Amino acid sequence: MNWEKRDIPPELVKDLAAKYGCGELTASILARRGLMRGEDIRYFLEEDLRHLRNPFELSGMEDAVERILAAKEEGEKVLVFGDRDVDGITSTTLLWSFLSRLGMEVSWRLPEGDEPYGLSLEAVEEFAAAYGTLIITVDCGISNAAEVERARELGVDVIVTDHHNIRDGLPDALAIVNPKLATTPPYPFRDLAGCGVIYKLVWALRFALKSETYGQSICLLNTRPSNDAFIIEIAKLRNLVVIDRLMETVVPGMVSITETRLPRFLTGQQILTWDAPLQKKTLRKIFGGGVEIQMLEIAAEIGKEIPQTAGKSLLRLKELSRIARYAEKSPGELDIFINLFTSFIQKRENLFTDEDGADLQLASLGTVADIMPLRDENRIIVRQGVAALMKTPRPALETLFFKMGLSGRRLSAAELSWKLCPTINAAGRMGDPGKAVSLLIQEDAGERDRLADELIALNEDRRTLGNDTWTVVEPLAQESLKDLEGKLVIVAGENIARGVTGIMATRLVSRFKVPAVVVSLGEETAIGSCRSVKGYDLRPLLEQCADLFIDWGGHDYAAGFSVKRSDWEPLRERLAIFARTIELGEGDDGETLIIDAELPHAYLSPDILIPLLDRFEPYGEGNRPLIFLARGLRISDILLMGKPELKHVKLTLDTGKYKWPAVYWQAADKVKKEFDTGDKVDLVFEVTRNWFNHTEIPQLIITDLIRSAGSGRT
Description:
Nucleotidyltransferase, domain 5; inorganic pyrophosphatase (n-terminal core); five-stranded parallel beta sheet; single chain; five-stranded mixed beta sheet; alpha/beta; 21% strand
């Protein structure tokens, strides 16, 4: 393997460390990963929930909140309709639970058995017949134009909350909340999971119910001198989102206030300022003594909630602001004012509580299960959700932890994604997703125990079905790869269960390094799952076949579709033709190891590396685990391990001050040939925690290892 460590100028590392208040080792890793914008770095160094983006930045959010609150007020029947995967299950649970706590008459429904993905006409018509008046889709709905139209005909309003890619037109829903909407301005982060969108909706509802400022326009005003003139700056906020700004530069005595834009901007508005006496004095100096703008002093109130601000000017607070340090350009006094006011309202209204932590548990599971990029605010959602899971897990999750042998230990986001999430996902894959929701909302301990056992049993059935199906799928894929010039694999069969098409497609991508399509052929309908390699977006391929689909949708690298059984062969033929146009990048062949940092022996201490490991958590999509290089470590002990065959190696590596346990997988045949006890070695490795006998032990996982130069062996 080749080892590659990008050279970073030392002065750049020092500048990043100084600017963002982190150590130089952390700064060097950020730089090597191309994370040098303040907005990117912010989500690696901060974890406070106030760094999350305001939910009202999402287009349609206030309309959705208003309609839900109206349904609460009028005692309407509400249906939460979700998807069958972990993201849909957690989204459904999260929203249903919150609305239930509000005392609303709310039910939930997911696609069961062989029902298609997304909102169905049957669900709409049954709900309307039961005198329901509001449907809220979660993790689905963006492609259900016909179903939404049918609901409208029946007098049922629909709020669509989704995160899937948008194609063709939008459904004619009362409100659509989707971070991928092409709005002006766009939502700053398009890769929220469906449950991330629902977490935002619940947060917005909490704000609306708690805050006196909900739905109000509030102006924050500040003046500052500029040479012989004064600059008057005003930000207009609604639900803590800046919706308009005004800046006027005025020379005292040169114009009247009516000749500026201030009267039109401020008429009818509540005006807050940081230092009212000073601001009024300045405005009189600018416009004369006859001008009086009614404004309220807010600095003292903010000082009570945020004591470190008391008695300080905005200019002084700029130097202390953590949020300001991540701005691409130096923030002005008004920007600091906006940040302080936002933090003040969040703290005064007590928006982030233990209830919020319980919601984040679900949001984090849905995010990692749906393989969303662990960048931007997804990092805080997952980080805080996992922390809440470890501290006080929701009762149903605690039951699952106990039964799966995971209780009482630290779990990372990556471990949750491949230990806990598949168990929740199994319900949907086996055609019974409602069982997972029933468990997550269950209040009776005995019933939780029973449902948890059933869910675990379903996962075992899913594993067996997946293994059996793989023996059918893998050879068919080999043939398909040859027929399609090595650019695509297509596998279809009546003996492929719908619930494992996604798993099979994922395994085929891993096996053959090309996009894969796996289809379950039913009597009337064929249901397919598509997965892709990084760098190849599935959408153009599927868009060329859209006229054949009953329905289709998904993400850039994971999608699904349904077609009439009679249309499957025409679709296969068209995919085969279009496969010739697929151009795949070189991809990652695994032969080059990208090094995050080379560590001197003094840094090879758990006291240094474990906090560093935790700082870059969570790991997963868009944030691979840290990879380090160290040279000249002595092997003090070697032990072969594995059952039934000794294939793996456990080593003890001596750094001088600390002896690290290390594991080198599939390396037993290298002992005494490439390394031996007493050798000094250079190695590339990850730092992990090993849980053994109820004790957590730091260890290294070796990726590659060679004898050090001059070690005395060849």
